């Protein structure tokens, strides 16, 4: 956005409220001389204009939404916290409004004997009184006779607005609880069916624990029929949803860096999520390559034909591309070191996606050959070490 556009937008939106609400009304400005009726009116007006800061609540709401997106916070938790903040903030705002209007309008918030008390004490007492009024536990202020029509209107408007905020917060919380409970109920039903199935099959206890851990990791205690949801949206929305769901993968995996957006969307649309538990074999050596994998979270270990460990791959890495570009059997085995979430890209989708990009094919081949050389070097070194050990053992016997 151009600086001129930013300035003009600010001038026609928040400039006037920010300017008026920033005018100081500190007591030293008005108490240098005796307060006259005119100065009291000016001070009252300045106190009221300071309440224009409430217009910045819209900005606060926008910034909070940006923070949720930037830091990938839980949206349900964000809605709960935001609703509670709105509910509590109303008491602060109406307390300030009552201090500015009701207290100043009569110049006697707490009575003549308490006029010189600190603002903190005045705020605390008025907050207590305002809370009572807004919660409908009483009408009016104990230290204050609300006799003027304007004062009655202020109290009435505050009460009506607080009721609207109260019902809004309650409706938000009910909606959140209902949505969370609906997904949790479906998940519990699915887990109940899983327990019945395991009992029917008489599966061993170790396998039962692995299945339960798999379900907890895969569904995160919430179940949605994602395929049915995606079937009812347009192709454009489906691509945006998939790209948003894999945004961390796209950001972390070096494979996706500097790739054109259409290619990224094509690859992401073809990815299939897989979850592997500890010690699960993901790829077996000497098998036909049919796919490659991207690691979203977790850790896997690469082993040669002889069982020698080559390396560990973690979040943001990928593997399995060697067989797809060389058309050879798998040169290594891959085993999950911890519970890992992977994304699988099948061979046909892989070829269809990268075929129009020869530079990318050359880049993948280069990485594949480097990894092949590393694997072969470790395998040859392992074989050589075994021969040396066998020779030393044979000589020791003689």
Automatic annotation (TrEMBL):
Signal peptide: none annotated. Keywords: Membrane, Transmembrane, Transmembrane helix. Coiled coil: none annotated. GO terms for biological process: regulation of membrane depolarization; sodium ion transmembrane transport. SMART domains: cNMP. One of its GO terms (cellular component) is HCN channel complex. GO terms for molecular function: voltage-gated potassium channel activity. It comes from the Eukaryota. Residues 255-371 form the Cyclic nucleotide-binding domain. It holds the Pfam family cNMP_binding. The chain crosses the membrane at residues 84-110, 153-180. InterPro entries: cNMP-bd_dom, cNMP-bd_dom_sf, K/Na_HCN_channel, RmlC-like_jellyroll. This is Cyclic nucleotide-binding domain. The lineage of its organism: Eukaryota, Metazoa, Ecdysozoa, Arthropoda, Hexapoda.
